[in-house]
Amino acid sequence: MALTREHDLHKRRAGRNLGVLVVLLAFVALVFGLTIAKMQRGESMQGFDHTYRVDMDPDTVIPGAAGTQPEGASE
C-alpha cells in the first residue's frame, strides 16, 4: 500500500473544509462591513452601562449646547 495515495474520504473532507472556510470568511466580512458602516454613519459609540447619562438622553436640552438659547432670551 502506497503512503502517498489519498483516500476518497480525505478528498471529501477537504471539500467540506473549504466550504466551512468560505462561510467563516463571509461571516467575518459581514461583521467587519457592519462595523465600518456604523462608524462611518457617526452614531454614538457609547453603550448602555446601567446608569443614566444626560448626554445619551435625546429629550434632554443641555444648556449652552448648539441650537439652544439661554433662559429669558427672546427669538
Major β-sheet profile: none
Briefly note the structural class of the backbone: mainly alpha
What ranges have pLDDT less than 50 throughout 5 or more consecutive residues?
none
Radius of gyration: 28 Å
Number of helices: 1
Straight-line distance between termini: 94 Å
Strand residues, percent:
under 5%
Shape: rod-shaped
Oligomer: single chain
Order of helices and strands: H
Residue-averaged pLDDT: 76
Q: Roughly what percent helix?
A: 40-55%
Strands, count: 0
Care to describe what's here?
45% of the residues lie in helices and 0% in strands. The protein has a domain at 10-41. With 75 residues, it is mostly helical. It is built from 1 helix and no strands.
Essential attributes:
75 residues; mainly alpha; 0% strand; rod-shaped
Give a concise summary:
The protein is mostly helical and 75 residues long.
Produce the secondary structure layout.
Elements: H1 8-41
